[in-house]
Structures are given as structure tokens and as C-alpha cells.
DNA sequence: GGCGTTATACTCGGATACCACGTGTCCGAGTACCCCCGG
DNA sequence: CCGGGGGTACTCGGACACGTGGTATCCGAGTATAACGCC
């Protein structure tokens, strides 16, 4: 089980976007320079966030990305699910009904116990991520970092 | 994020092995017939469980696999970790220290907030899986299934 | 009949190909801005 | 000086190759069994 490396990019990128003044935008190229990651690939991932309704993308000069709603209402789960998909890592293929030892359908009225356990664990993971928002992340950053980002973003939007 | 399909095989297989009488063993070939999955590949995964100390593998005629300890002391997490690895799905590559907007090391004394959030979520997932044992799974199976498995296993070992 | 030896058949374990998803890159469609021209 | 039109440069979005890890398979090393011959 492994999350795409781009999930880290998206999380950090969203944290920077959350520090923008209201209405301002940042382009994918600027963000890729900011973090030292491939530009086109980052844009590809940010496009997923746009499709998920987390970001809003504007084209043309002075265009770029901005949050679709307040940072308090963007959870970490929203970001991870957008870039990685919301599906359960464990998919039950009803193994108990296959092979020589297959259980009869009348014994399978209740969901597979193993699938239920895995599902609950995934729900616990999701709940843990849904409890933290972008606002929490930004609030926890040192002032020096906030100041530096503000300066860089102002210079970029300029 | 996706768990290997073999994790389902291993979970169901372990549940069947947990139903064995003490001292009895089941071969990989019998298990693959039981579930209708490729034999050699299943054995490859069970070998991981042996390396992890969950199963014990015996060679030669009448050989096979058996639990290394009581089902009450084998958690679902043990099985999943053995087949998929125990690493965190999210790996922090210290993105904050890369690129143009890199933070100075003196601002990175505390761990990355995003990495901490992801780590806690993973811990919640692990805790949820560690709370369930093979004994719990077997106890929840219908009596008809238990009886059927007992009959099949006796026929195999008999 | 009992015991040692040998041959056997069965088991696991690791080394070897194939395929899908994630990674990385590119180019095209669309749009807001800016400049220029005319009134 | 003000308004309109066109050019331009910049943006995102989707389509195209490459590499790594999961999937599937095979064959070899090792061992408890069982038969066999000998005492």
C-alpha cells in the first residue's frame, strides 16, 4: 500500500495556495518553481483538484489556481481523495464463494467479516484525515515561514 | 492507494488455517484448490507469513503450514503487514526544504505538519486492524461454514 | 519379527518473465490582458 | 481624451512515452515417509 508521491506535492501546494490573499491566484509554473518539482506533472495533479471542486483554475494572463472555498472547509482527506481516488484499498472479491470450498450463497447473507474489518480500518483512516483542515496546517506553521511565503507570493502576483 | 489482491488471499487462507486441529498442517496446493487461486503464487505469499513469524512451514510429505501461535494472538494487522510491508503509505521527502521557496533548516526543527497528520491517520488504521484477531474472525463464521471447512480439512489431512 | 538403509514422492523457497499503474513529458485549445488605432 | 478591435502572451487541460512494482509461473533444495532387504 503506497500513496502516490504527488500526494505530498498536492498537500504542500494546497497549503501555499491557502496562504494567498482572497481573490489572488498562483500559476502551476510558479508553484513548481517554489517546490522544485516538474511543472507539467504538477499541473496535471492540480487539475484533479479542480475536477474535485477543491480548487478553481483560471486561464489566461494573471490566471492560475485558487481555493474554491475557505481553508477551514478543505480537509486533508479532500486533497488526498482527489489525487488518489476515494476507493477502499481492500476490495472484497468474495473469495469465500470461489474454489472447491466455496460457501453456498445462503451462507453469505452477511457481509464478509474480513471485508468489514478492512472497511472499518479505512473509515478510521478517513476520519483521521477529515478532522484536519488546511486552516489548521497554516495555523501551525512558524511565523518566519508564513512571512517568507507571503513575500514570495506577493512578488509573484505582483 | 491500493492493497495487493493477495492480501485477501492471505486473510482468508489464515482464517482457514486457524480452524485446523492443533498440530495439523495444510499444504499450499490444498489451499489453492480450496479458494481457486494460483498455487505457486499463493505459496509465495505464505512464505512471507513464515518469514514474519506468523506461520510455520514444514516440508516433506504430510507437511504444510500451521499457525506459529494461538489464533487469539494473530491480529489482522500482522497478516496485512507481512504481505504488504509495514511502511507508511505516505513518505515525507521534506518538500519544504526544496525549490526556490525552501525553508531554512532552522525553521524545520519540528516535523512536517502534513507528515504528522498522515502518520497519525496511518496509526489509526493500524490500531483498527490490530484490534481484531483471527480468533474473532473464526468466532463470527456461521456454524455451517465451520462444519464444512472441518469436513474438508479432515478429508485433506486424513 | 525388528531394524537399518535406500529410494521416493511430496513439501516449501527463491529465481525468472509479463503486465498495469504511476511517473514524466509534450503540445494544443482557450482566454484575459495590453497595445494600437480611429473617432 | 475615450472607446473598440486585434494581436499577443500566458494559462490550463488532455494526449503521448518510460520505469518500477505487483502478478503469475517455473524449477530446484530439502525432508519425512514408506517400502525393501538384511539380521
Q: Per DSSP, what share of the residues of chain A sits in E-state strands of 2 or more residues?
A: 5-15%
Order of strands, widest sheet of chain A: 1-2
The total strand number of chain A stands at 2
Rg of chain A computed from alpha carbons, rounded to a whole number of angstroms: 20 Å
CATH evolutionary superfamily of chain A: Winged helix-like DNA-binding domain superfamily/Winged helix DNA-binding domain
What does the overall shape of chain A look like? elongated
N-C termini distance of chain A: 42 Å
Largest interface: A-B, 58 and 58 residues
List the quaternary state of the chains: homodimer
- Element string of chain A (H = helix, E = strand): HHHEEHHHH
User: How many structural domains are formed by the residues of chain A?
Assistant: 1
Contiguous low-pLDDT stretches of chain A (5 residues minimum) are none
Q: Can you summarize the main beta sheet of chain A?
A: 2 strands, antiparallel
Estimate percent helicity of chain A.
40-55%
- CATH fold field value of chain A: Arc Repressor Mutant, subunit A
Structural class of chain A: mainly alpha
What is the count of DSSP helices of chain A, taking H or I runs of 4+ residues? 7
Q: What is the CATH level 1 assignment of chain A?
A: Mainly Alpha
Mean pLDDT of chain A: 94
The CATH architecture of chain A comes to Orthogonal Bundle
